[in-house]
Amino acid sequence: MTNHDHLDLRELHDPDIPLPIELQGNLASTNLSRIYNWSRAKATWPLLFGLACCAIEMIATAASRYDISRFGMEVMRASPRQADLLIVSGTVTKKMVVPIVRIFNQMPEPKYVLAMGACASGGGPFKEGYNVVSGIDQYIPVDVYVPGCPPTPQALMHGFIALHKKMEGQRIHNRNSVPWYSKGPSDEIPLPILGPDIVDPRQAAILRQQAESAVLLAEATGD
Amino acid sequence: MVENVLVQDPIQEALAGLARFGGAVQADDRQNYEGIVVDRAALPDVALVLRDELGYDYLSSVTGVDYLGFGDYFEVVYHAYRTSGGKGLTLKTRTPRDVATVPSVVSVWPGADFQEREAYDLMGIHFTGHPNLKRILMWEGFEGHPLRKDWQEAYFESEHKPFESRWPGGNVRRSEEYNPFGKNVKYPAGFTMDKVRDISEVDHYEGLNLGVQIEGSGIRTDKLVVNLGPHHPSTHGVFRMVCTLNGETVETLEPVMGYLHRNHEKIGERNTWIMNMPYTDRLDYISSMSNNHGYALAVENLMLKNQVKGYNQPTERTEVIRVLMVELTRYVNHLWSIGFLLNDLGAFFTPALYAIFERELILDFFEATAGSRMMCNYMRFGGVFKDIPERMMAHAVLENDMIRDVDTMEFLHNLIFERLPNFTDEFDRLLTKNEIVFNRTRGVGILTAEQAIAVSAAGPVLRASGVPYDVRKADPYSIYPDLEFDIPIGTYGDVYDRYLVRLEEMRQSVRILQQIYPRLKETAGQSILGIDAYSPRIPNGGESYGRVENPKGELGYYVVGVPGKEFDQNPWRYHIRAPSFINLTALEQMCVGHKVADLVVILGSIDIVLGETDR
Ligand code: SF4
To answer: What is the reported pTM?
Structure first.
């Protein structure tokens, strides 16, 4: 058995490489992807960013009882430039989604998004509201969804573990597996615009179509 | 009981005092309504007389009601109180819907400032003479005024819940699939990308005189505009301040909010009465229990007026449990607020960690009783959801692999008589005489008593300025008249005083809890149900204003029901007087002239929570 006070090298070891039984846990032979992902997952820095009620549970998770530092995540950065993980912890309103997309664009890659709670995942109890976005995934890609209103600290930690698994599964040598390992910079997400209602520039074509069909409808009814 | 010198009925007294206005002032004689109706032309003069001659110096709430289909007018409702205590006066004025204008009362009660802007934003009522009438929660350029009864949101399905598509069939309907954009959006007819203009930011920077050279003092320098928020670690949520700085000194400050405007009131007006209870949890999400209490009081009052069949007044046990929960909540809130005030002062996270640890113990009790740590959804009309359990069992405990199973009353006894009093003293010892705390908070963010009353500040902010106004004493509800407690007040009205007031309120809460504990034992076994059987329909007509002393200040619910079969399941109007929102009216006054580093400290001392500010 390995001693828990020490690093368990079996986590790092590549199971495809055979190793004598007496060396297991004391020696690791591995590949670059694995060691790289392992270090990333063990030191994911979330952005210090609270949105609504869920943020209170996020703070409780960071506090001593649940102790987020057991996951190597206690270093919450206030600047998006230094953060790896965006925890969207609350209701995303139309007014707020513009700054959130901007923050997401400012984060350096590799970057991850965790939608915490019912609101961030799909609008939650306030979904029908006129100023509420039905989930942050309408605007930015989400890696992990954590259900709950608010999710308990245990649920959030479960989300972290899911995220770590995801990170560990990514491969540097497979350039198509994640956008940031492909050639050239990845695209920014266009900022939504606050017009008469929020406008997603990616929906320009549907907007035009809708406007045309409204005109056609008006002509047909003789308005 | 609090002695009430004004035995006279406030309405008769007001009518007598306002007799000089003749027919412009009348009693509101609709059934289950109260207060006076004022002709809008006479409103500013009436307001002045009310304030200066009749002593209504404190304007608690301003809001609009759209009586579409019931006379087709907007009614603006004002709730005014005396800081010396006693019942309030409800004042109303009407305006036609198509050209909705009402004279502003900001010159009489500056606390109406943000509230009138809100009514303008959400209902489209123009307040003539308002110094800065623009949208406050939605962005400039947004189409329409959402709280009008004929305004429909993008996901509109029907006027009332439960929606036919889901109940009683239990079907699932994803609103996105019925929207051409697959999103919660709706555009005016013929709208395309070339017509997009984003004017939401323009206003904030207008008139700031950017880049003006400042003469004098021998240094030539520019003014600087700094945006704090909406993503800022010290704004306690998604709050934003646009300030201009001269060097490091704040010259102007504009609070910008609405980043968490979740349309609480519009959703609340589609919900059934009881469905709003869990929504109130999410107002001030640190103090869900006391939010529940205010809403329960407002609806109970309306049920009493309507003599609803099957409704029973809360039993003693119910009241005792409610006060227990509410005072624990107050303790939790002040813990949180002081912990994070210290964060803002630069004592990063250590005091907050102490505070959060104690909070967890109380949350365990909430979880065992209500089923949720934060969103308790615990109170019901005339009752509470469940009695407190005999034993507290939990799997999440401090030590690993241990399942807790303790006697609830023992747990509470330990909490109330040992743990919390000791912790309050410890917090006191750690912080109160700390030199840094002292130097950074003394004389910072001063609000005088007159200013605090004028801007309708509430809660610890008002009391720290030396005004001993606490709804629990001034206009008592529940069993507070039988309980002994003091109202701590401050002397200077600075950040330090607000801190001291909160600390002392924690002690007073513990004192109340210690009186509650024996009564909890005495009343064991009494019923905690207020209604024999729950029904979404509550025959309702009339208005009701329920207010409680929330940890952050006076929280008020203004609810209106209209009679009729098809309307009796939903509130016609559901408005929340949010203390965090109205306390922010004073922010600019408190900040101007201070250094930029003090901004977050002053904001922290107001103790806002955005769920309630933006609703
Ligand atoms: S999911 Fe629930 S707790 Fe979280 S932000 Fe939404 S309403 Fe608040």
So the answer is: 0.88
